[in-house]
Design goal:
- This protein is about 30% helix and about 35% strand.
- It is of the alpha/beta class.
- The protein folds into two domains: about 90 residues, Elongation Factor Tu (Ef-tu), domain 3; about 160 residues, Nucleotide-binding domain of ferredoxin-NADP reductase (FNR) module (Rossmann fold), CATH 3.40.50.
- A seven-stranded antiparallel β-sheet has the order 6-1-2-5-4-3-7. Strands 11-10-9-8-12-13-16 form a seven-stranded mixed β-sheet, sandwiched between helices. A two-stranded antiparallel sheet has the order 14-15.
- Strand 1 and strand 2 form a beta hairpin.
Length: about 280
């Protein structure tokens, strides 16, 4: 079975793209927080990507990816009408969503796309959702309009001050927690340093904090152990026990080390892919 790309949108040229993929069996069961593992070709690398949105009636899922290595660089060359070789999912435990009042959803980088799906689920059940979105500058902000369609509040922070608060999402979050004592939960999705910083901000307030771990994954079904992480002093597998965990219990230091352990091999693979592309262009 091939998974056809029905729509491709370049969100940030050369960096971030959105794909709407024909995957009816995934779309039928996908919930906020779930992810898929895909391959571009039969011998391609398996990579996990969180589902940014889904349309069960149309049979489609939406993914957003940042070009960080060989596989995402290759995937960024795909156009509408082409097909991915595999899309396996939905995988992982879906986000626990219940009626609980005010929920703050914090997103950074491409994590905003995954946060969007979670925020949408909270809004659908009737929670008051406050979205906090961050990026280095205004041109790198994602999903602000989409979040604004169902979130009564969308707060923005940029490192350079080009839009919204001049600073980090944690600045905005701390100010909001100081003003609003009725926040039931904070959800953070994005780079590991951001999720760790969010967890440190929320801990003194005693607010439940959920983070989505982007651990290294291979099979996605708990057999290989590649995605193991430490939560509350216990070993967990992000693919089957998560990907969402209590941010106050995650060993972020260990997670950072594990994410960087194949950096040399990833760099070599990317260089080989770029060389292959340059050779093809020269023909």
């Amino acid at each position: 079975m091939k998974y056809r790309i029905l729509k491709k949108t370049v969100l940030i040229p050369g960096q971030t793209s959105l794909l709407v993929i024909d995957a009816p069996h995934v779309a039928k069961k996908a919930k906020p927080g779930n992810f898929v593992i895909l391959r571009t070709s039969e011998k391609g690398e398996r990579i996990p990507l969180t589902i940014a949105d889904c349309d069960p009636e149309a049979g489609t899922i939406t993914i957003v990816f940042l070009v960080v290595g060989k596989t995402t660089a290759e995937m960024n060359t795909f156009e509408e009408g082409q097909s991915l070789h595999d899309v396996c999912g939905p995988l992982g435990r879906p986000t626990h969503i219940e009626k609980q009042g005010t929920v703050i959803c914090v997103g950074g980088g491409t994590g905003v796309a995954a946060m969007h799906h979670i925020a949408k689920g909270h809004a659908a059940i009737g929670n008051h959702v406050v979205a906090i979105v961050g990026a280095r500058n205004k041109d790198l902000l994602l999903f602000c309009n989409e979040l604004g369609s169902f979130c009564p509040e969308v707060l923005i922070a940029t490192d350079d001050g080009s839009m919204g608060h001049h600073g980090f999402v944690t600045d905005v979050l701390k100010e909001r927690l100081e003003q609003d004592k009725d926040v039931s939960e904070v959800v953070a999705v994005g780079p590991v340093p951001m999720m760790e910083a969010v967890s440190k901000v929320t801990k003194p307030f005693g607010v439940k904090t959920t983070v989505s771990l982007n651990a290294i994954m291979v099979d996605g079904i708990g057999m290989c152990g590649a995605c193991r992480c430490t939560v509350g002093g216990e070993t967990k597998f992000a693919c089957v026990d998560g990907p969402e965990f209590d941010g106050h219990k995650v060993d972020f230091g260990e997670l950072r080390l594990r994410l960087g352990q194949f950096r040399d091999q990833e760099k070599q693979s990317m260089e080989l892919f770029q060389h292959k592309c340059h050779c093809a262009e020269g023909k």
